[in-house]
Amino acid sequence: MSSSFYRVSTANMYDATLRNLSARQKSLVDLQENLTAGKRVVRPSDDPVAAAQAERALTRISRIQTEQRALDVQRNAIAQAESTLGDAVGLVQEIRQLVVAAGGGALKPEDRKTYANQIQSLREQLTQVINRKDTNGVPLLGALGSALEPFTGPLLSNPDYLFAGLPGQAASGGTSIPTTVDGHAALMFDPVRDGVYTATVTRGAGSSLVTSAITTSNREALDGAQYALAVNTVTVDPVAGTTVVDYKLTKTAKDGTVTTSNVTTAPVKTGQPIPITINEGPDTVMSFSLTGTPAAGDSVSLQPSSSLMGTIDSAIRGITDATDSVAASQAVGQALANIDAGMERLHNMRGYAGELLNRADRITGDQDKRSIQLEADRSRAEDLDMVQGISDFQNASVGYEAALKSYAQVQRLSLFNFIS
């Protein structure tokens, strides 16, 4: 039977023990640092891959916060624009009520002028509202870009309202909405898009001619042309009880080309509205009716209206200049039809502004979900499981304490203690 003896030097044993103590101490310090920081990855060298994932998540979270701040500014601008359109709708409704009241047949010219002055005051307020700016001095209804005052009133060089800007609506993005609303679409009339026309009547002797509101169709064929209708003769058949109107129709195209034609209406029962239809080739582009008592020498001018404000100005002039109820009825009837068309445009653009606000809310919801997802990605990459961390720290602490005690116990051992 053989036995082997291994001799381990005391110095080597002490060195190995000290190395183990140092390693345990370092492990305990690292666990303590992780525990106090609440992170598994305190520095990139701890886990380069996890550190890169956490950094990417933080960068994306920062970008979302920046986009959200910009969206808040955009939302505030659109909210102001929607409120501005609401104020404009309220003013136009008040104007419409006054126009209706000014058409009363029992009113005196002085009364109608009083109504016209009230409408004029509201129109001036409307002009201020539609040129309103946001807190940065940018017009709220500036479309794709405009002057600081987008809507300019009648000038000597141009007797109608103009939109001093580029019509159109900026597109929304995945994380943004426009900061302005298309004021041109809200307040200006386009002959092809809207086809809003105004009829102006000049009456001959003994006439009480009044026209109905103008209805347009096939507006591409109409193309914003102007028309003038001059009554040549009015034939009344007392036996058949019918009326026939013969008139000359003059068309002035957008390019300045003038064409004329003579037209005779179909017999209509006397006292009933006489329908007038204007055609361009096979297409009917305009229709209205003549009411009252037409007479030779009457003329009707049909011109496209360029804006809601221009319509209101025409109503003010017509009501102010009306010398009798017939003239007032003509001015009021045309104004009401065109104001209703303008109200429709305002409501459409206000609804669009409301949808932009809804879109901003949806974007905010999506961004919040992305932020939560990215925060979860960052947490998985670098955060510490506190329960596991506390357990590891306690285990390391107990192990380090046991190592220190065993080392101290060995240090007290000496050969001299066993020499008798």
Q: What can you see in these coordinates?
A:
Strands 3, 6, 7, 8, 9 and 12 form a six-stranded antiparallel beta sheet that branches. It contains eight helices and twelve strands. 50% of the residues lie in helices and 18% in strands. 29% of the residues are buried. The chain has two domains: 39-189 and 305-383, f41 fragment of flagellin, N-terminal domain (Up-down Bundle), CATH 1.20.1330.10; 192-304, no CATH class. The mean pLDDT is 87. It is α+β, with helices and mostly antiparallel strands and 420 residues long. α2 packs antiparallel against α3, α3 runs antiparallel to α6 and α6 (308-321) runs antiparallel to α7. It has helices at 10-37, 48-102, 109-130, 183-187, 219-222, 308-321, 325-382, 386-411, and strands at residues 146-152, 162-165, 197-202, 210-211, 215-216, 226-237, 242-252, 258-264, 268-269, 274-280, 283-291, 299-304. β7 and β8 (258-264) form a beta hairpin.
List the helices and strands and how they pair.
Blueprint: H1 10-37, H2 48-102, H3 109-130, E1 146-152, E2 162-165, H4 183-187, E3 197-202, E4 210-211, E5 215-216, H5 219-222, E6 226-237, E7 242-252, E8 258-264, E9 268-269, E10 274-280, E11 283-291, E12 299-304, H6 308-321, H7 325-382, H8 386-411
Antiparallel strand pairs: 1-2, 3-12, 4-11, 5-11, 6-7, 6-12, 7-8, 7-9, 10-11
